Amino acid sequence: MHENLITNLTSKDDKYACAIADKIISESQDTDEWYGYFDTFASLLNHPKSLVRNRALHILAANAQWDDNNRFDTILSEYLSHITDEKPITARQCIKALAQVGMAKPQYIPRILSCFHGADLSKYKDSMRPLIEKDMEETERLLTE
User: Fold this and answer.
1) What residues contact 46, with CB distance under 8 A and at least 6 apart?
2) Which long-range contacts (CB under 8 A, 24 or more apart) does 31-36 make?
3) Strand, coil or helix: what is 96?
4) What whole-number distance in Å separates Cα of residue 80 and Cα of residue 99?
5) Cα–Cα distance, 106 to 99 (Å, whole number)
6) Tell me, what's the pLDDT at 1?
7) At 47, phi and psi to the nearest 5?
8) pLDDT in tens, 66-111
9) The dihedral sign for the CA sequence 20, 21, 27, 32
10) Domain 2-144 carries which CATH code?
11) How far apart are CA 29 and CA 42, in angstroms?
């Protein structure tokens, strides 16, 4: 059953795929049941569809707390690259999800903050840039409290 759910994360039916992702994220708050699929979720980070990338970012963040094997180390650079994703909504989703990643893996906080401070946001429209900056400030505040 799990294999079908993962396949459905890339479904053309975005409403359904989002519901599957929400179920995985919710269950991942309380159990490591989905951690075994970490590499599969990580493979979705570079999916051509931004909605799929968003789902992967949040699922991986929810599973960071179960990462005793430090598998996140192998994908951290790729994950952080989405701070400046081509789609501003995905950049915002990544930045927000990084709060959960940093709380689960505090050793990443300096690198997360360094990426925030070095991020070139000039490619985003003037309407989106302040929102992304605000998300960065909020996540930084959560990680440095």
Assistant:
1) 53, 78
2) 32/63, 32/66, 34/2, 34/59, 34/62, 34/63, 35/63, 35/66, 35/67
3) helix
4) 12
5) 10
6) 54
7) -60, 145
8) 999 999 999 999 999 999 999 999 999 999 999 999 999 999 999 9
9) positive
10) 1.25.10.10
11) 18
What is the three-state SS of 71-106?
A: CHHHHHHHHHHHHHCCCHHHHHHHHHHHHHHHHHCH
Residue type, 18: C
Q: Which residues of 26-55 are buried (b: 16+ CB within 10 A; e: fewer)?
A: eebeeeeebbebbebbbebbeeeebbbbbb
Q: Which residue has the tokens 């951290």?
A: 76
Residue 124 tokens read as 């985003």
Cα–Cα distance measured from residue 103 to residue 45, given in angstroms and rounded to the nearest whole number: 21
Alpha-carbon Rg for the chain, nearest whole angstrom, is: 15
Contact criterion met (CB below 8 Å) for 141 and 109: no
What DSSP character marks residue 49? S
Contact yes or no for 45/23 (Cβ under 8 A): no
Ramachandran bin of 124, using left for φ above 0, alpha for ψ from -120 to 50, beta for the remaining angles = beta
Enumerate the domain spans of the chain: 2-144
